[in-house]
Write a structure and sequence with these properties.
With 447 residues, this protein is mainly α. It has 23 helices and no strands.
Amino acid sequence: MGERDDPGTIGRRVQRLRVERGLTQRQLAEPVYTPAYISTLESGRVRPSDDALRHLADRLGVAFDELASGHSARLVTELRLRLTEAQRTLAVGETEAAAGQYAELLAEAETHGLAAERSDALLGLGECALETGELVAGRQYFERAEECLAGAPLPARVPALRGRAVAHYLAGELRYAVYLLETALDELNRGGLHDPDALLLLYASAIGPYMDMGAHARAAQAAEFALALAPQSGDPALVARMHRSVARTLVAEGRLAEADASLAKAAELYRGLQIRTELANCHWMRGYVYAQDGQLERAEAELREALSMLSAKRAALYSSQVAVELADVLHRRGRSDEAAALLHDVLGHLSPERGAVHSAAAHRLLGIIAEDARRTEEAEEHYVRALSLLERAGAAGDLADLCRLLGDLLRRTGRVEAALDAYRTGLGHRTAPGTTTLGPAPAQPPL
């Protein structure tokens, strides 16, 4: 049978229902049990058998589950259906409405002591918080979801753990995000817990922080494992997310056509599932791919579509990140004033604790725009700010290029020693990408 409460709780419940119905202990007990047994049961001194609970439930006119656990199977089914509705609301981009639904469901799950439903409601609230850029609140929701499932197997806890890692990643805490994801991967693989959905979720989530840290080889390996695991997954939304993540490694390897094909697959799945949030992210990534390929007009169109979709659902943090990519395309198309205005607006929404890597990208691009306009001091100020943000986040993937830009600027202004220091800093991050911040790779799945 399912979970049941302790004998004391069941005894008090039986007594309350008996009194409400105006039954004596003898009337409740007969003809199978004695009044003395009912008295012992109501005092919590005996753990009733399933047969005894069925008899009592029938006499009291309640369902077995309600007597054993305090909630009916119908209640749980209704809560699960409403959780699915809240998930659908979030998928179509109505984040505030979804958060309200999840909050109501959380209160009900807590009232009835339903741990799994409480965890799912907290996961939903965490995802809503990530959408709106409330990273601290999101992390706290995910932590509470993990606590609800403290005794559950690791695969069941992976969605909450992954959410916590993403919150740290978006806050610019790359090393810790990778630590969380790799620790879970290592535990799953070494423990023989080869749950394909859990592994796929973790590998796909690790690709972004790996790329930002400059650990391109490890990102490529994670993408390889994710692609191999995808056919074993029964979750199309998870497979679509994997394709979107894998596209980053394909772009880094110069395989732009394959990256675009992966994004097209992801977009097709998201359209079928009506998940607007992730569809917007596919437009964002395709814009990035076209920009890398020099197709700037197509890149601008894709990025503007992504920005429009994300802004409509008030996903402030993600829309700020897309705006940085769009500004780069606008600058490359000769519209630097428009790009700079967009970037200054972005920096008003980001901070070192909220989108540090993208704040750095905005300062880097503002530095390039200022340098092109021969505003040397302003350019240097933006480069230094970007460098500070990237060093704090551990984003080695972008540090080397930024140090080159700063070094070139310092050299042109006659500060040769300072330029050499900048170049040395950049070389230090290029010598062994990823190895300065990452430990041994986690154990691998048996693929």
